[in-house]
Amino acid sequence: MPKVVYVGSDGVASAVDAVVGESVMVAATKNGVPGIVGECGGNASCGTCHVWVRAPYFEQVGPPGEDLEEDLLDLGVSDRRCNSRLSCQIQVTDDLDGLTVDVPAEQP
Amino acid sequence: MLRTEINELLTQTGPGTRMGDLFRQYWMPALLAEELPENDCAPVRVKILSERLLAFRDSDGRYGLIDEFCAHRGVSLWFGRNEESGIRCAYHGWKYDVTGQCVEVPSEPETGNFCANVKLRAYPLVKVGDILWTYLGDPAQQPPLPEFEFVRVPDEQTYTSKRWQECNWLQALEGGIDSSHVTFLHSGQLNSDPLFKGSKGNDYNKGDLKPFFEVADTDGGLLIAARRNAEEGEYYWRVTPWVMPSFTMVPPRGDHPVHGHIWVPIDDENCWVYTFDYHPVRPLTDDELSHMHAGYGVHSENVPGTYRPMANKDNDYLMDREAQRRGEQFSGVKGIAIQDASLQESMGPIVDRTKERLVATDTGIIKARQKLRKAALALAEQGVTPPGVDPEHHRVRSAAIVLPHEQPFQEGVAEAVVARPGVAQTTV
Ligand code: FES
Ligand code: FES
Ligand SMILES: [Fe+2]
């Protein structure tokens, strides 16, 4: 099982064993990771699963693929950075083992 | 959710604002033609994009839209006399023509040309269909007149009404894009409203309360499609076009006339809702017209002599708790227009979108906001003409259609969503 690490704004990291194929948002909410809300259930509509993807994983994950994700990052999240993604739009794969993301202090 | 600065960008339309500059790229309804019924009739105060103007029709039938206030000492020209090809201020008699040019200053000697140098701000005012349209932007950039089908079909096939809505234009427009509320708020009307009832599509509507939404880009705006189950192996699609900045059309039901709206900001806390109903290939029947006049369908019953609905926020929209309990109206408020107005006004004059929580059915709203914002920024930064200015973008239609499961809706409605003169609407 690939590991995903979520680092909170207080610096506290939560490591989760994620299931291949589920989203980084679902892996977090299932395991009660603080700061990832996932209100719209992963539809790229609410923006409450915003994360900053750390190097070197951002290379692998890439920029927002869906138009809607791009729009929502633009309109909704309070601190969009060049490594911003909606975690519901990132699928867990074996290659992403160790994926580390920073979780904003506040979700929309 | 929307960041505060974007909420402000999208909702403020006065002079010098970015969204205001965007609106000033388009022809917009300024008033209904019925408001200036004859030459030399009473002038009408028109507030649009926070500018206070006066519309009048002169002795030769020319329409004018000029600054409401006299250049002399600033009184409202609404009190003036509309006579002999101009409006004469009631205070000291200065007179202006439809171009805003001052043509007479009685106190000054006729030999001088004092008045030649006095000109009020003025905008074009042109009748197309039942609407008098204006354009508040740079005259050098004035686009061709609107081509929306409802103003281009013969008079007897179309009807337009308007009502004052006491909230910001954007939350009103968003109501037109968010078709997921129809299943709840307007559920009572599908059975009872004479302008809706009795179509096969209504059964599909009621049979599947969890529509799935898809949104597609178009040159002028968006297509927002709601998908419901129909017969075995088929979906029932209801497709709403949005043309920027504020035109939408509701998908048709049976052979009923097709309707839609244009929202026009009065100022940041009020807007006009222009509501039309037309049939692409036949005259409206007397029955249909009398229902429209009475406020059925998407129209409203207004206080006589005004465009304020009878049911408004001062009387709690005449909400009837008993009717709500009995299930006649989901919200206890009568009529689709007032159901929408009551809820949209209840959000406050400008809703704080930092507090909202959007879900998957709100995709159309997210897309529309993003298109508006991008267009406003592209205009401000690079002078790019926004979508919806080109009259080619106006030639759209809504559609209701049944398609096999495997067919993408964009493909299935490609023809149906184009306005084709003489061809009936695609409807179920
Ligand atoms: S869960 Fe709503 S945008 Fe990701
Ligand atoms: S204020 Fe209008 S003529 Fe004096
Ligand atoms: Fe509505």
Describe the structure.
The complex is a heterodimer of chains A (108) and B (428). Chain A has 108 residues and is α+β, with helices and mostly antiparallel strands. Chain A has a single domain, classed as Ubiquitin-like (UB roll) (Roll). Chain A has a five-stranded mixed beta sheet with strand order 2-1-5-3-4. The radius of gyration of chain A is 12 Å and the shape is globular. Chain B has twelve helices and 19 strands. Classes of the chains: A alpha+beta (108), B alpha+beta (428). The interface between A and B is medium-sized, with 17 and 16 residues. The site of fe (ii) ion (FE2) has 6 residues of chain B, from helix 10.
Overall number of domains of chain A: 1
The interface involving the most residues is between: A-B, 17 and 16 residues
> Strand share of the residues of chain B?
15-25%
Which small molecules are bound? Answer: FE2/S2 (inorganic) cluster, fe (ii) ion
How are the strands of the largest sheet of chain A arranged?
A: 2-1-5-3-4
Question: What do we call the CATH topology of chain A?
Answer: Ubiquitin-like (UB roll)
Compressed to H and E, one letter per element, the order of chain A equals EEHEHHEE
* H/I helix tally of chain B: 12
**Strand proportion of chain A:** 15-25%
Which structural category do the helix and sheet elements of chain A fall into?
alpha+beta
Strand segment tally of chain B: 19
Ends apart, CA distance between termini of chain A: 30 Å
Helical content band of chain A? 10-25%
Which spans of chain A of ≥5 residues are poorly predicted at pLDDT below 50?
none
Q: How far is the first residue's CA from the last residue's CA of chain B? A: 35 Å
Q: For the report, how would you describe the main beta sheet of chain B? A: 8 strands, antiparallel
